[in-house]
Amino acid sequence: MNNLLQGINLYLVGMMGAGKTTVGRLLASELGYGFVDTDEVITASAKKSINNIFAEEGEAEFRKLESDVLSQVSAYTKLAVATGGGIILKRENWSYLHHGLIVWLDATPELLYNRLKQDTTRPLLQDSNPLLKITNILKERESLYALADLRITLQEGETPEEIAKRVMNQIPSVLKHSDAV
Ligand SMILES: Nc1ncnc2c1ncn2[C@@H]1O[C@H](COP(=O)(O)OP(=O)(O)OP(=O)(O)O)[C@@H](O)[C@H]1O
Ligand SMILES: O=C(O)C1=C[C@@H](O)[C@@H](O)[C@H](O)C1
Ligand SMILES: [Mg+2]
């Protein structure tokens, strides 16, 4: 195991399409950590897609499942956790996130839109104007994402590997426990 985080979990937060799942897998491998994606745990256990959970049970039920999964995941150590984009919405979730190091992958609405414009798997973006929807959701959530320990502002054209490397390089500057450096 890479000793950088001394076993504490790394939580990736950010908007849909920011690359939490993609970059999270790479970070897990760099850190010698396990990888968990809360969206994947929810869909595997519900045996339904996120679209179907939203359509059949509603967003509130999805958020409840998401909190349950986060509370279970946070009982483990040595994990890189890709969260769902809305995990920051509930106050109770922050008590779990704060057990680890929280990294915000911050991207502009245009970058997110370009990545997701062909994608039909994000129910909140099934809208006649997805770019405006992304812009509005980001506005509502920005102050919550900003509570993360580390903000990584994504550059257009940057590869997932480059982003993971940037996260690894910046972790020492924000470690909570000085004895963990
Ligand atoms: N650095 C990158 N450059 C180009 N494409 C990327 C990059 N990172 C991720 N992608 C692509 O963007 C899309 C969204 O990425 P990903 O699923 O990792 O986002 P996410 O933050 O996990 O989104 P969600 O919150 O919806 O789960 C995927 O198709 C992925 O392959
Ligand atoms: O930003 C959001 O609210 C979401 C992001 C995805 O990760 C999924 O959790 C779901 O599509 C909702
Ligand atoms: Mg994801």
TrEMBL record:
The coenzyme or cofactor needed here is: Mg(2+)
In terms of SUPFAM superfamilies, this protein maps to:
P-loop containing nucleoside triphosphate hydrolases
Q: Does the keyword Kinase belong to this entry?
A: yes
* EC number(s) reported in the record: 2.7.1.71
* Native organism: Calothrix parasitica NIES-267
The metabolic or biological pathway listed in the UniProt record of this protein is: Metabolic intermediate biosynthesis; chorismate biosynthesis; chorismate from D-erythrose 4-phosphate and phosphoenolpyruvate: step 5/7
Subunit relationships: Monomer.
Provide any one GO MF term from the record: shikimate kinase activity
What reaction is this protein's catalytic activity?
shikimate + ATP = 3-phosphoshikimate + ADP + H(+)
Biological process per Gene Ontology, one example term: chorismate biosynthetic process
Q: What is this protein called?
A: Shikimate kinase
Q: Which residues form a coiled coil?
A: none
Q: Enzyme class, one word?
A: transferase
Q: List locations, semicolon-separated.
A: Cytoplasm
